[in-house]
């Protein structure tokens, strides 16, 4: 395949163009700014566990397409470099001094990732100098470190949380890089969400500016599944599975009372993936509310009217609401309230579950329609549990991919699953936007058909919500309140 020369888009990504619209958004490599970079045979060649594996090493030309559903005349489109071990590595095992840090909120699977990074470095590449940075980014310059060995981390995947501790904020790029330089660290593994990955990108840029032989590898962590490009983030499957327990409890409570309502608040600050998938998995939910799909309470076609109608028909109902849903309604009622932020700069959300509970109770009193409402918030129970079997496997693959990439000399990248394949993705693609539920997508249509809830949307709301694919003709659908709903690419 004929390719044009690599074109550097800032220092974060190399764009390589080929025939038939092929575009490779490549990740940086230490050789981009370090001349005469030495290479060594990959130790896996003599590793008994892999000596029998055919074609274990990834070809340097292997890439993974971002989009797999195409037309016959479509260009080949954007690709990412396939993750995995290379024939040559850029670090001697004895020279590697690696560190691992976890940042941001808790998420199932953090300890599994830590364990697998340590095991991969030690068992696959013979690396013995591995330290853990305690307490997030500020731990680089304000906390002690701990030596990580396979024996120490052997059973931590059975526990929730992170043995290294975590925190929000505390990112001081120059202090962090100076600490990395002073300690002689040459591989940095950073586990965290979009804010953490932005910090990792800043660390990479400073490392590159100083010309240091340091590989900076990110492993994306967000329980909300709001990181773009990748198929999913680790911990998401566990969160959806655990959310079922709360929904099941809410359903039992609602079904056991006259006009019973079970209201469950799930995680999802800006993205409603957990609420959507938990609802689809449960099949007991009558209404799912997410940040991407605005709703209104009062009047014809509003949420409160729908709740009363559902109760009169079935005698009970279950409502699932993401924590970021309805925040604009709360803000409208508290115009003078000061907007607060956490250490990461995220706006502190008001408790929409408690607010909605009170609104439903007030409405029932006004209508003289008695209800029994039970409110369940399992947020911290979900965050703190160990990862399930599916996430354990995914965490192991992410950790191994990060180690293979760093040993091969790649830097300024994050690992992730794209169309079922492990890839290396430039930091800027991960941090440029947030992944959100597209309410004109088929998956949201499947949810609406499962719950039989109305969309609670006016046509102009749907028009601004985006499309799954360009060129799809919109089709109006009549709602119960006489309004129309532009479903676009749902069909």
UniProtKB/TrEMBL annotation:
Record field: catalytic activity: beta-D-fructose 6-phosphate + ATP = beta-D-fructose 1,6-bisphosphate + ADP + H(+)
UniProt binding sites for ATP: 105, 168-169, 193-196
GO BP terms in the entry: fructose 6-phosphate metabolic process
Region of interest (Disordered), ranges: 464-491
Keywords assigned by UniProt, alphabetized: Allosteric enzyme, ATP-binding, Cytoplasm, Glycolysis, Kinase, Magnesium, Metal-binding, Nucleotide-binding, Transferase
EC number: 2.7.1.11
Comp. bias regions, Basic and acidic residues: 482-491
Cofactor: Mg(2+)
A GO MF term: 6-phosphofructokinase activity
Residues binding Mg(2+): 194
Active-site residues, record numbering mapped to chain: 224
Self-association state and partner proteins as the record states: Homotetramer.
Its biological purpose: Catalyzes the phosphorylation of D-fructose 6-phosphate to fructose 1,6-bisphosphate by ATP, the first committing step of glycolysis.
Protein name: ATP-dependent 6-phosphofructokinase
Source organism: Cuscuta campestris
Chain's gene name: PFK
């Amino acid at each position: 395949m004929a390719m044009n020369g690599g074109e550097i888009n800032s220092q974060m990504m190399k764009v390589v163009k080929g025939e038939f619209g092929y575009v490779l958004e490549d990740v940086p490599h230490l050789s981009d700014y370090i001349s005469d970079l030495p290479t060594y045979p990959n130790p896996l060649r003599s590793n008994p566990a892999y000596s029998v594996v055919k074609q274990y090493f990834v070809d340097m030309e292997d890439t993974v397409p971002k989009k797999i559903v195409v037309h016959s005349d479509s260009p080949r489109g954007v690709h990412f470099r396939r993750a995995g071990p290379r024939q040559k590595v850029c670090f001697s095992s004895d020279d590697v001094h690696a560190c691992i840090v976890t940042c941001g909120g808790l998420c199932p699977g953090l300890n599994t990732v830590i364990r697998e990074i340590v095991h991969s470095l030690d068992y696959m590449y013979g690396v013995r100098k591995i330290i853990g940075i305690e307490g997030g980014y500020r731990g680089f310059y304000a906390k002690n470190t701990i030596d990580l060995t396979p024996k120490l981390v052997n059973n931590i995947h059975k526990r929730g949380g992170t043995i290294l501790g975590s925190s929000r904020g505390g990112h001081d790029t120059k202090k962090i890089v100076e600490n990395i330089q002073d300690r002689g660290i040459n591989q940095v593994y950073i586990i965290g969400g979009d804010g953490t990955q932005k910090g990792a990108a800043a660390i990479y840029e400073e490392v590159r500016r100083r010309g240091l032989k340091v590989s900076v590898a990110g492993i994306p962590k967000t329980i909300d599944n709001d990181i773009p490009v990748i198929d999913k983030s680790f911990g998401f499957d566990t969160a959806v599975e655990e959310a079922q327990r709360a929904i099941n409890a809410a359903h039992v409570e609602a079904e056991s009372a006259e006009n019973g309502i079970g209201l469950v608040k799930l995680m999802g600050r800006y993205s409603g993936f957990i609420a959507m998938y938990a609802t689809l998995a449960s099949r007991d939910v009558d209404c799912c509310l997410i940040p991407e799909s605005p709703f209104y309470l009062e009047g014809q076609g509003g949420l409160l009217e729908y709740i009363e109608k559902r109760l009169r028909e079935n005698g009970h109902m279950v409502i699932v609401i993401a924590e970021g849903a309805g925040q604009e309604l709360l803000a409208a009622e508290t115009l003078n309230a000061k907007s607060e932020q956490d250490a990461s700069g995220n706006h502190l959300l008001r408790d929409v579950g408690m607010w909605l509970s009170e609104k439903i109770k007030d409405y029932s009193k006004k209508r003289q329609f008695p209800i029994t409402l039970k409110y369940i918030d399992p947020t911290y129970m979900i965050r703190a549990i160990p990862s399930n079997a599916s996430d354990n496997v995914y965490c192991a693959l992410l950790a191994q991919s990060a180690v293979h990439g760093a040993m091969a000399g790649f830097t300024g990248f994050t690992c992730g699953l794209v169309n079922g394949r492990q890839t290396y993705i430039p930091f800027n693609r991960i941090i440029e936007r947030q992944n959100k539920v597209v309410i004109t997508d088929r998956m949201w249509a499947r949810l609406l058909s499962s719950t039989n809830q109305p969309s609670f949307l006016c046509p102009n709301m749907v028009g601004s919500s985006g499309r799954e694919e360009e060129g799809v003709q919109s089709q109006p659908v009549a709602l119960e309140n006489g309004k129309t709903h532009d479903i676009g690419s749902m069909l």
